[in-house]
Specification:
Elements (H helix, E strand, L loop, with lengths): L26 H13 L6 E5 L5 H11 L11 E5 L27 H7 L7 E5 L2 H4 L8 E6 L5 H10 L4 E9 L8 H10 L3 E3 L8 E5 L5 H9 L4 H12 L12 H15 L3 H8 L6 H6 L1 H18 L5 H9 L3
Parallel strand pairs: 1-2, 1-4, 2-3, 4-5
Antiparallel strand pairs: 5-7, 6-7
Helix pairs in contact: 1-2, 5-7, 6-8, 8-9, 9-10, 10-12
This protein binds S-adenosylmethionine.
InterPro entries: SAM-dependent_MTases_sf (IPR029063)
Protein name: Class I SAM-dependent methyltransferase
GO molecular function, one term: methyltransferase activity
Length: about 325
């Protein structure tokens, strides 16, 4: 068992305050964040949260740190990164405002965040703005803990890889939020590429995958992830490797083998191979969980496939036909 694997047995007994700030992550995941802060992290190296939103996840982690016997609030720092404002392309919701909606003429919820996290401000370092601007490309200080709830686009994932994954060391802990999101396949194939250097803590906790770094991650592996150099087939193979390691989440509600299979369809979709995307997605229509929770995803992939066929006379795009022919499909 990994060092953090032992926290699973404590999950049922965590009682968090009722008045936690609104959070998009589930109670289970908040409990795990609390347990990490309370029982595992030291604050000797950087503690980083990417995508703090209205502060729900930050609060749970900070509360655990405050109650930790080893975290020293005078020296340890929790770094919180977010736009801290709503608007096009931010992936932030108006629910992050304390009032639950955006006030007229103010799109920033930074003051609301500060207010809610007030007890922890002495050890909280807030980085407000676009991650590409607020993170320092020259900072190579080791990161002990990385909570990734920000990598909703390949552009942001590249920043996460270049500036944060590169600072992980053996012993570092990573939590990937939204691991149950088939539309974020970079989370899945990058984890596949990291498998030789990490140990997965246990079943995902709802949508969160936790892992611990056990060997230094080679620079060329990080470079390949940042520059997105893998082919579609390589990415699918990497996702398959992750499928071999995880099944249902800790609560039993999310079938990760199916989720990851669906993620493969999105690898093909983003590469413009809509025929292949649909051929990967179609057999999953009968999956009870996916059909219940991801009907819009099926719709998206089916529509892209139909439009592609209509445009190109039935056989997918010329390029995808040529690629398919070359690969013997
Ligand atoms: C899913 S929400 C975070 C939810 C939060 N962890 C919680 O407990 O509710 C994702 C956050 O990522 C932030 N975000 C997305 N892209 C970003 C970027 N390029 N720079 C800074 N923040 C970003 C959004 O502002 C949003 O608040």
């Amino acid at each position: 068992m990994t060092n953090i694997g032992r926290l699973y047995s404590l999950l049922d007994d965590v009682r968090l305050p009722d008045a936690l700030p609104y959070s998009q992550v589930s109670t289970w995941e908040l409990r795990f964040l609390y347990l990490l802060g309370r029982h595992h992290l030291t604050g000797e190296d950087r503690l980083v949260e990417l995508g703090s939103g209205g502060g729900g996840s930050t609060y749970a982690l900070a509360l655990g740190l405050r109650e930790s016997p080893v975290f020293d609030e005078r020296r340890g720092r929790l770094h919180a990164y977010d736009f801290f404002r709503v608007g096009k392309g931010t992936f932030a919701t108006e629910k992050f405002f304390a009032s639950g909606s955006k006030p007229a003429e103010d799109d920033s919820f930074l003051d609301d965040f500060r207010g809610r996290l007030e007890p922890f401000l002495p050890f909280l370092e807030i980085h407000a703005g676009d991650l590409w601007k607020t993170s320092d490309p020259g900072d190579t200080s080791p990161v002990e803990f990385l909570h990734i709830d920000i990598a909703k686009t390949p552009r942001v994932f590249r920043c996460v890889t270049e500036r944060f994954l590169s600072r992980l060391r053996p012993g570092s802990v990573v939590l990937h939020q939204d691991f149950a999101g088939p539309r974020l396949p970079w989370l899945h194939h990058s984890t596949g590429a990291l498998l030789p250097y990490i140990e997965i803590a246990g079943p995902p906790i709802r949508s969160t995958l936790a892992f611990e770094v056990v060997r230094p991650i080679p620079e060329d592996v990080l470079k390949s992830l940042a520059e997105d150099t893998c082919s579609v087939d390589e990415k699918l193979a990497l996702i398959s490797a992750v499928q071999e390691r995880i099944d249902r989440d800790h609560t039993g509600g999310i079938p990760f083998k199916s989720v990851l299979e669906f993620s493969k369809a999105y690898v093909a979709h983003y590469a413009g191979d809509h025929r292949r995307a649909w051929s990967l997605a179609e057999p999953l229509i009968d999956d009870a969980y996916l059909s219940r929770t991801r009907a819009d995803h099926f719709e998206q992939l089916r529509t892209a496939y139909d439009e592609d066929r209509a445009k190109n006379g039935g056989g997918g795009s010329r390029l995808s036909r040529l690629v398919g022919k070359a690969l013997g499909r």
